[in-house]
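Reply to dn_fold:

You asked what the input looked like. This is it:
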Amino acid sequence: MSDIIHFHRVSKRYPGGNDALSEVSFTLGSGEMAFLTGHSGAGKSTLLKLTALIERPTRGQVVINGQNTAKVKRWGVPKFRRQIGMIFQNFSLLYDRTVFDNVALPLVIRGEDDKTIARRVRAALDTVGLLKKEKQHPIVLSGGEQQRVGIARAIVTKPPLILADEPTGNLDPALSAEIMDLFQRFNDVGVSLLIATHDIPLIERMPHRVINLAGGRLADPADLPKAEPA
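and this is what came back:
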């Protein structure tokens, strides 16, 4: 199995001397799903930003789907990101646009024709169970439905890699489980996923590798806090 993410001794220092990541090395195999966890400020979001070329490392090498990100020029970043679907905790939706238009946005940016856009948007909405709500605006949807709109937008371009930053952070346990089950369905058809989460109970019930960060460094997953008894 080839690697879709490869970090080799990656460090990220922000202005002011804050070391968000220090000497991080790990891989995510093509078709693998893994959880990224750690306390607030451990470096999870920074790691995802480096993967998506939202940030660049101070030292070390980041290789995504065989491409060294150091060789991606600024003008090549949008094309590079086409292979990545991003899902955020705060949904990042356009509330003055319909559900359909929100999901269509990545395809519009790519210049796809109207027929292709309509077909792929409706397929994505059907996958997340929101096909009947394509004409509604996100503001009238529940938090779980809004997150599913964000997921539909992330998968509409059929990327080989999905990055999710605390995707269940604003959801109750039942909705969180639904979202994780949805991610599992994507993984079952070969999509690679790296999911940053604080949700220890969800991590423990799913049979996937855990990448644990502590103070910007890799830590032993055995050091994870145990889930509270139900």
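The first helix runs from residue 44 to 51.
Hope that clears it up.
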